[in-house]
Amino acid sequence: MASAPIAPYNSSPLGNSSSPNASRESLKMEPLADVAMLPGEERVIDKDIIYICPFNAAVKGKVFITNYRLYFKNTDSETPVTLDVPLGVISRVEKMGGASSRGENSYGLEIICKDMRNLRFALKQEGHSRRDIFEIIFKYAFPLSHGMQLFAFLSQEKYEENGWNVYEPMEEYRRQVLPNSEWRVTFINKNYELCDTYPTILVVPFKATDEDLRRVAAFRSRCRIPVLSWFHKENHAVITRCSQPLVGMSGKRNKDDERYLDLIREANGTTKLTIYDARPNVNAVANKATGGGYEGDDAYQNAELVFLDIHNIHVMRESLKKLKDIVYPNVEESHWLSSLESTHWLEHIKLVLSGAIQVADKVSSGSSVVVHCSDGWDRTAQLTSLAMLMLDSYYRTLRGFQVLLEKEWISFGHKFASRIGHGDKNHADQDRSPIFLQFIDCVWQMTKQFPTAFEFNERLLVVILDHLYSCRFGTFLYNCESARDSNNVRGKTVSLWAFVNSDTSLYINPFYTPESSRVLYPVASMRHLELWVTYYIRWNPRILHQSPVEQRYKELLALRDQYLKKLEELQLSDSTHLTNSSTPNTATPNQHITHLQTPF
Amino acid sequence: MLSLGSGGAKSTKPSFVSYVTPEEIKSEKDPSKQEKHPDLLPGEVEFCSANPILKYTQDDLSQRGVFGTLFCTNFRVTFISDERPLEKKAKTFKNKLYGENDIPLMCVDHIYGVYEEKRKPITGALVKNKNPSKMIIHCKDLRVFQFCLTYSKEEDARKIFQGIAHHCLEEKSLKCVFAFSYMGTPSPSPEMPRKQETIMFDSPEDWTREMKRTKANCRLVIENENFELSQRLPKYFVIPLAIGDLFSYQGKGLPIWCWSHYSGCALFKASFLPVTQEDGDFQKHLDTMINAVAHNHLYSVKTEDLSESLPNIQDIQQSYNKFKQFFLIENSTDFWLSDVKWFSSIESSGWLDIIRQCLQKAVEVVECLEKDNTNVLITEEEGTDLCCVISSLAQIMLDPYYRTLMGFQSLVQKEWVAGCHAFLDRCNRLHLKDKECHSPVFLLFLECVWQLVQQHSPAFQFSETYLTVLSDSVHVPIFSTFLFNSAHHRENIMKAESPLAQSGPLSCPTVWDWSVQFDSKAQNFFFNPLYLEKVKHDRAVRKPHKPKHQRHLSLPSSAFKTPLKKGFFKDEADSLKKMLRVKRLSRWRGSPDAPAATTREFYESWQNRPLDYHGLLLPYLDGPAVRVWMQRYLRWIPEVYILGGGSMAVMTKLMELQNQVQDLKRALEQRDPSQAAELDHRPYLQQRLLSFDSSGRLSSSFPFAYTRSRNFKPSIPIALMQSLMLTDSLACQEDEASSVVSFV
Fold first, then answer.
1. Lowest-confidence range among A32-41, A402-411, A495-504?
2. Which of A123, A237, A461, B56 has its CA 20 to 30 A from that of A294?
3. CA distances from B500 to A181, B425, B505, B659 (A)
4. Do A542 and B622 touch (CB under 8 A)?
């Protein structure tokens, strides 16, 4: 297997679906034995099984499990029903029913997935077939709980581009015209000694010495000191990010921290530094009990503190759970809107977006800002990256967006491993939370409101979310750079960006119109926010999915190109006609164009 | 422009503080300035005016005002600003009849007076009391105007306030509607070739052509030409062949033909028979009618009483009244406060649900025609309200002709205008006290069509902008189209000998003469750039449908092939007839067979086929699919404007590309016509050429409202926490299980 020819593997990124569209695509794959497996993927077991499809009746077929995926194909009818589910997407496996329960299909298996669906199967009673399959799924879906490796480390995929080179911190800072007279690059965290959840390269105020940084680190939760995220080239205002100050019950102060924030303010002559605390006010106060807190007025006199009222990871997790309840398997019919409202999902989106709008607005008006929440790796990452997306058109390109994710999320230590629970059987872990999904949803809302401002399309966002869970690529593994380094993720796994950039045409938004200096302000009103149906309800074949606009535009583009080509040919033949009168082109014009016809 | 109040989203309050006293304003005024007057339309008369009046603007989320003069004429309420207009940029989409500061009298929905900070709806009784300090006008096209009356002389203010209230709210006679004073000369429209005209269905020829087009095997009734049969029936109409007796019950209960399916079955609508009749007679007559419909094809019919299965017109009115309130936003604070409970508010009005029910009912009708090939007879009290909604919707789903602009207009003529929908009563043009008969039934129909348009845009030649403009035009009192209760009513009033007309017959334009409102450039916005035109091989007027290349869905009506039909019933035994009749009756007596379950199958078989935009079209009806018509309802609310965004951004690009393609094609044609034709079969549309002001960025509300603020500030929500006061323990928890490590 390992020596198999390594061609870029083009699976349909949305292919793990039973919808008619996707199944048509996957028709290329022959039943079971001929599934195009990834290099490094190995077959483990296959079994006769009944897939209890929530949208149709029960479907008889075969399930095929590898160390990467669960693949199902029906055997009972002409219309193909397939499932192609990376095992990484599985959150929980349960046995349902058994000897004591009645009715057919009583030996059931339920698989709860992280991507808004549940799969139910029924097995024969004989030969412990359910036990076998249950144990195998359980083992391969949660390899870390069984002392095994994630698939990303077993995969032998090779791509032309090394996706790990997409983000080079120095290159990105140079793009932002850094370092400069106000901001310097420091290597103090080279060995993760200052802060083990930060990247090695940091940008800090020019006037702050390394000794200052160490003292500030002592006063910030998990040593996550304020460092620069983004620099406004015209007005020199900056977005900086950090964790909460360790004020505690007694209201401790730290002169170094106060002076450090003032250095950030001074760098571009901002009169009042704005500190955005992402949390609701009450939560910030409550944090004092555990040693945290917020920047008080008297201690930070040149700063203004604004709470953005975004709730914590547990609230978001419950909200998504409620959302799943109303969209899967069936969409709540009679009271759709009030059910949607009661999940609060879009309301949380609204809060995150409006927080980011405030940050972006402040910065573009010339004031520097500090953004933090409790630890500065969840809500903070959402706010800084969304504000940067609004302010800097580079991040709205296909490459730039990859850089943005690598920088603000991956390198600054959003705890992907804890939030997603890669390969871990503990599905009830309180650390899990859809913070990154919520961010991608916010990006989607922006692309909906500004359909011409982003170079990438919705498909990229879906692919990112699919591989957030799949464990096929190393991109989203581990909690921080230090952990990635010690596990040699860059050396042993492939980056998602290698896969994405191997065929960028799939992810290009045809309506993209570059406008470099433009700040995007989405409207954070429920009037405009909508549920991302094509992601959250994509498994339901009864929901309207396709948007014809993109297709139509591409057809027109093709037609335009044909006309252009024809015109050029005519011009060419005219000129050659002058020199050589026996051009074959003019002789048989009709033959020539028949194959150019478009299917209008 | 005068800035009042401190501005900004945070500080605006519903009440309004002015820092400028009237004296200051007076002194500021230029003494040499001439009085301004509105440019009157031919036949328009000015009633009264007042100056200075402060009109509040909502442009940049701050409450500001402009001083000017408020006029009331027999056509509109209009405000003319004292400020000299800044370099007047030509609007691409300008209505020739009324501008952004004009409110046609008929378009006024409600007037409120603000008395000592309290808002009170103005009714006849309140007008006599003292002047309000502020007058708020809610329009039927969802604009909101706020005028401050305290700066002008009290007498002037009283006059204008009472004048407006009188002309907009009090009961009046039809004669007072501006259409009867309007002297606009009908402009010839040279750009529209004759063959593209809307079919008016006011002549026997129009009906005959329609019957021919759909291959209907029915009878044209001309006996009502002088409305001797009934004043509630169309002048001309079509009924099943088998009906002999027309004159009993004054034409009530007559099954009126709407449309024929290519299989031969057809859709009919009927009003109820009067209930006073004796039971036996009644039943007999009913049976005759139903038998006549059944006789049309395969001896089968399904009847559906819409008054039982759909909300009545009062329910519709109530629901819409609730619904529209959510869009009549007076200030930023209101906007953000209502944002919190937005979804549940919308749901509580029930409006989207009514839309869904209508679409669902239309799908059931379509299923009978398309899948079962049975005739359908829909009935209701008058037969001119929900019958019109359902029959029009069914026809749009089944017949691609009605998805073209001209086809759609012809459909509205056929089912609604010629079909005697009581526009005058339903729209409450005359402000009659009897509220029972008001109901936005036609708007409901447009809403349903909009749902189809947004779900399947390539199938429609017209755009949502067209639908929005059409919904506005209902309240422009110039067009004859929406002014009457029936064909008889129209003819009676329009006739020369009618007492209303002074000199010669009255000739109001129809709404379909769009050049009355928009120049041809603006009319381009009516066309949907996504429309996939059907490849036509000849340019003749649309031929009757050939079943073979559309209608993929029709299941073969197994036993009864069409060719057999003719002789079959006549010659063969009665027994089969009887058998079928039993079947028919059982259907008709109507088990309320769970429609959702049966339709689902129909749906799925439709979904499993590739979507043909020129074939059968069904709406998606699940929760997320039925949506709020954003363009119509949100276009005047500055808080929701997305600068440089919205779907218009995409449409603009699409139109630009289309122009490029057209230009290239033309260039190619000049060089070598044969080649160009080979590449693109679609007919050449001259009208589609658009030019956009590429320097100015458009907002999502384009083409209706323009964002004028130069330095755009994002709107930041306020009152965010109102609903999210989460009380459960989760909200108070820490993100991480372990507490923060303290280093000190």
1. A32-41
2. A237
3. 84, 19, 10, 49
4. yes
Interface residue of A374, A525, A550, A586 to substitute, partner B, most B CBs within 10 Å: A525
Give the residue numbers of the binding site of A for substrate: 312-313, 373-379
Contact A552 B674 (CB under 8 A): no
d(CA B217, CA B240) in angstroms, rounded, equals: 8
* pLDDT given at position B58: 67
Contact assignment for B675 to A597 by CB distance below 8 Å: no
Residue spans of chain B under pLDDT 50? 1-32, 60-61, 189-195, 497-498, 501, 538-594, 681-696, 709-711, 723, 737-744
Instruction: Count other Cβ atoms within 10 Å, centred on residue A134.
Output: 18
**Of the listed A195, A373, A442, A480, which one is catalytic?**
A373
Residues of chain B with CATH 2.30.29.30: 46-170
ipTM > 0.95 for the complex: no
Are the Cβ atoms of A221 and B740 closer than 8 angstroms? yes
Domain ranges of chain A: 43-148, 169-537
**Position A79 confidence tier, pLDDT thresholds 50, 70, 90:** confident
Decide if A301 touches B, using CB distance below 8 A.
no
d(CA A373, CA A355): 12
Cβ separation B650–A511 shorter than 8 A: yes
In angstroms, the CA B496 to CA B507 distance is 10
What pLDDT score does B688 carry? Answer: 45
Nearest to B624 among A244, A357, A543 (CB): A543
CATH number of A43-148: 2.30.29.30
Please identify among residues 450-489 of chain B the ones whose CB lies closer than 8 Å to any CB of chain A.
455, 457-458
β B144-148/B134-139 pair status? antiparallel
| Active site (annotated) includes residue A53 | no
Count of C-beta atoms within a 10 Å radius of residue A181: 8
Distance from CA of A588 to the nearest CA of B (A): 11
Answer whether residue A228 shows pLDDT above 70. Answer: yes
Residues in a beta bridge with A238 = A231
Residues A375, A222 contacting (CB under 8 angstroms): yes
Pairing of strands A82-86, A90-96: unpaired
CATH number of B46-170: 2.30.29.30
> What is each CA distance from B673 to B368, B382, B665, B685, in whole angstroms?
47, 56, 9, 16
